[in-house]
Design brief:
The complex is a heterodimer. By secondary structure, chain A is of the alpha/beta class. Chain A has 10 helices and 14 strands. In chain A, helix 4 links the parallel strand 6 and strand 7. Classes of the chains: A alpha/beta, B alpha+beta.
Chain lengths: 288, 377
């Protein structure tokens, strides 16, 4: 078992003919992921690494029964690609694209409500269930099958942590990068209950960073509902304040965007917060 | 992206929002002429994109054209938080009866657009929220549905008893919201919205921030004032790098914001001080590394560079090609510690085999070595 990505996953790549789309399609296939379709408007009939290319998502889904889409489309066109995937009935969208305007994402987030589609990202490095399938851009080789669930707002920092876990003999059930943007599809609050319910996940690593209140919300969920141990790391202790935070934005965040506030909330919920990614494996071992 | 007050005012003016009469200028003589034309006392305001310009002396009241010239000369010679004032706005002084606040912002937690009003305008809204939260009124708008009348009513009712003023303010809120949507703002604010003694509502100070992700719209990108920001951050952005300068001496070049932040955190934890935040981003081309090195070399405090790459969409061979090109083009007077792992790392290591770089096999080792090098005299 695992969450969101498993042996029934069938992947369609949106933006498959681009530089990154094509490169990472090969990476996913080499990992053993069933990549069964690609979509780039106007490129029907081509094959990329043996994968048939379609003009539209509807066509791709009808023909191949793809249930998962991964999006490498440039930011200007990515919202269209996302709506197209939702309307084609895709179950899980993984948006790798960086730079989608925040207001576009707000609309997408609200459009997704009540629909059978869930979305990871944008600005995500994807999701991987080690040994089964990877949907995204992470280096597959560092991921080892096992019992630790990993959820993170970062991409490369997640690789770092996963690498540390693997070196310590701690394999992973599923690793998810939820994306570094202000507004993303699934948040910690959506992922944690899935790990809590997954019989093959024994503990969770939550990698947060400064800004927003998602870690505080996660802390309140962990305190109230979670029985599995959680270890966390929060990036950005050394970051200067106020660089990207808008003025009236602070009124809603209520002074809770700092690494200190997030660490405090998590610790109060019984989470062990590591000072460095290197400390995470030992903290996990203590809890297991 | 921040823009100047006068630019925000131009945007609001396009939506029909009333502003005090005023003009922008960059010489004291022009300030005198504008004041002469206005024929009453004026306010002279420094156009800088940093907070606290009033406290720093960047906003002054002038009673006549000669005084306006003197004060404009003084303000145009000022630096506010390190930024040279290049333009001043000269506006008619307003006879204030009451001050209000109107703001529109992205509500991250609720995934909505938040509209905020307050009867305590003219001070920072965060301060109002802290001291007198009952004076802050909010409505959350679903962007797919848009702003509805009942929400406007909720926002204006606590501000005025007078129905006509409620109606006028409601209209202004609609226009601020429209400007926020149509210009991809992350913040659109009138503070204060002034009720004058003769019963008019004027947007005396305004602020707009534009979503950085929306700058592919040329009309928005053109609002950027390259003089208003740190020259290194400007150069970095032009090279598609994300850079923030800090006070330490251990420079770093990292891929991914999370790993870049963590690299800074650990430099600090191991007793060093980071010189910068620098994220070369995804799908890095060799050129990005060259530009990153060029930017770091202009920082005189730097004593060591740590290149920390965990390849995913970034290919280690692209980074290696960039390092080689940078070392061919530039003299680097201090040690470079390199830690490369992930996508195409073997190829990268082969490419760098003949260089005199210091290699680290782990994150911790890389940081330790860089901090050590920076500590040596």
């Amino acid at each position: 078992m695992s969450i969101l990505v498993n042996k029934d996953t069938k992947v369609c790549v949106q933006g498959i003919t681009g530089r990154d789309g094509s490169f990472h399609t090969k990476g996913m296939i080499d990992y053993g992921t069933p990549v069964i379709a690609g979509v780039t408007p106007g490129k029907r009939g081509q094959e990329i690494h043996g994968v048939p290319v379609f003009n539209t998502m509807n066509e791709a889904v009808k023909t191949t029964k793809a249930n998962t889409s991964v999006i490498y489309v440039p930011a200007r066109f990515a919202p269209d690609a996302i709506y197209e995937a939702i309307d084609a009935g895709i179950k899980l969208i993984v948006a790798i694209t960086e730079g989608i305007p925040t207001q576009e994402m707000l609309k997408i987030y609200n459009y997704l409500k009540g629909k059978p589609t869930t979305m990871i990202g944008p600005n995500s490095s994807g999701i991987i269930t080690p040994g089964i399938a990877k949907v995204g851009i992470m280096p597959g080789i560092i991921h080892k099958p096992g019992k630790i669930g990993v959820v993170s707002r970062s991409g490369t920092l997640t690789y770092e942590v996963v690498n540390q876990l693997g070196n310590a003999g701690l394999g992973q059930s599923t690793c998810i990068s939820i994306g570094g943007d202000q507004i993303v599809g699934m948040t910690f609050m959506d992922i944690l209950p899935l790990f809590e319910a997954d019989p093959d996940t024994n503990a969770v690593v939550l990698i947060g960073e400064i800004g927003g209140t998602d870690e505080e919300l996660a802390a309140s969920y962990i305190k109230a509902e979670m029985h599995k141990p959680v270890v966390s790391f929060i990036a950005g202790r050394a970051a200067p304040a106020g660089k990207r935070m808008g003025h009236a934005g602070a009124i809603i965040a209520g002074g809770t965007g700092t690494a200190e506030a997030k660490t405090k909330a998590l610790e109060e919920a019984g989470v062990a917060v590591a000072r460095t990614p290197m400390e995470i494996p030992d903290l996990l071992k203590e809890k297991l | 992206m921040k823009i100047h007050e006068y630019q925000a005012k131009r945007i609001f003016a396009r939506y029909g929002i009333l502003l005090p009469y005023g003009k922008i200028c960059d010489t004291p003589e022009e300030a005198r002429k504008i004041t002469k034309k206005i024929k009453k006392p004026v306010v002279i305001k420094a156009q800088v994109q940093v907070g606290g310009r009033g406290k720093a002396g960047g906003i002054k009241l002038a009673k006549n054209p000669d005084e306006a010239k003197e004060l404009a000369k003084y303000i145009l010679s000022m630096k506010i938080k390190g930024i040279q004032v290049k333009k001043v706005m000269v506006t008619e002084a307003i006879d204030i009866k009451e001050e209000f606040y109107i703001g529109v912002v992205i509500d991250r937690a609720e995934k909505k657009i938040a509209l905020i009003t307050s009867e305590a305008g003219g001070v920072e809204i965060e301060e109002v929220a802290r001291e007198t939260p009952e004076k802050v009124h909010k409505a959350r708008v679903d962007p797919l549905i848009g702003l509805r009348s009942y929400q406007i009513q909720k926002l204006v009712a606590p501000l005025f008893k007078d129905k006509e003023l409620q109606r006028e303010t409601g209209w202004i809120i609609r226009k601020v919201y429209q400007a926020f949507i149509e210009n991809d703002c992350s913040l659109a604010e009138i503070n204060p919205l002034v009720l004058t003694r003769d019963g008019k509502l004027l947007a005396c100070d305004t602020k707009i921030n534009i979503d950085d992700n929306a700058l592919f719209h040329e009309k928005l990108a053109n609002l950027r004032d390259p003089n208003a920001e740190d020259p290194l951050e400007l150069e970095a952005r032009q090279s598609d790098l994300s850079y923030v300068g800090l006070d330490g001496n251990v420079a770093c070049i990292v891929n991914g914001a999370g790993l870049a932040m963590t690299t800074m955190d650990i430099i600090k934890l191991y007793g060093g001080e980071p010189a910068n935040f620098l994220d070369v981003g995804g799908s890095s081309s060799p050129e990005k590394v060259v530009n990153a090195m060029r930017i770091i070399l202009t920082n005189k405090n730097v004593r060591a560079i740590l290149i920390n790459i965990f390849g995913g969409i970034t290919r280690c061979d692209d980074i290696a090609a960039g390092i080689i090109e940078a070392m061919n083009k530039m003299e680097v007077p201090y040690p470079i510690v390199v830690r490369l792992t992930g996508t195409n790392k073997e190829k990268a290591r082969e490419m760098l085999a003949d260089t005199d770089l210091t290699f680290a096999s782990s994150f911790a080792e890389g940081v330790k070595k860089a901090v050590e090098f920076a500590g040596k005299k």
